[in-house]
Amino acid sequence: LQGIIQAYKSGITLQGNTTSLGRWDYSGSFFFSISAITTIGYGNLSPSTAVGRIFSIVFALFGIPLNLVLLNEIGHLMLLGVQHCASRLEEVFHWQNKASFLMKTCALVTGLLLFLLLPPLLFSDKEGWSYEEGFYYSFITLSTIGFGDYVIGMNPDRTYPSWYKNVISLWILFGMAWLALVIKFCINILE
């Protein structure tokens, strides 16, 4: 039993294992599809059959472009929200440049809290990671680097709530859109 658990922790699955320790339940499959279309690719979960691999290729061929469109739209909506709030501040308080700067700063701080600073607290609770490990996972995931050294929901010694992977999948989508805006802003400054 210890050998099976150690193999599972290393990302190895046994052929014919019907339980698979929750990897292919609904939330695990949803998380796999999000990591595939976002090109994070942690490397710990992959299809083991030829049909599964072919399906993954077809799914990625359509899913990656659709995800890029979705992330672009989410980022555009976030930017429109910030611009709308800035224009309302300009109208109400008659601020010109201050409103735009204030709203961009608020959007940056809010995004930092929602996508990089608060999630490590959840990961500390659910995964048993330190805050630094959770912060590292947050950035590595949202930047789509996805080394695979930290992946949520894979510790067989822990029990995860059914909502956990689904919420993290949504966090990934919105967090990637926010981080893309931050990276675009940094590119504009550098140029």
UniProtKB/TrEMBL annotation:
One of its GO terms (molecular function) is outward rectifier potassium channel activity. One of its GO terms (biological process) is stabilization of membrane potential. Pfam families: Ion_trans_2 (PF07885). The keyword Cell inner membrane does not apply. Keywords: Ion channel, Ion transport, Membrane, Potassium, Transmembrane, Transmembrane helix, Transport. Residues 20-78, 113-190 form the Potassium channel domain. GO terms for cellular component: plasma membrane. The keyword Transmembrane applies. The chain crosses the membrane at residues 26-45, 57-81, 101-123, 135-153, 168-190. It comes from the Eukaryota. It is found in: Membrane. It is a multi-pass membrane protein. PANTHER family: POTASSIUM CHANNEL SUBFAMILY K MEMBER 17, POTASSIUM CHANNEL, SUBFAMILY K. Belongs to the two pore domain potassium channel (TC 1.A.1.8) family. This is KCNKH protein. It comes from Melospiza melodia (Song sparrow).
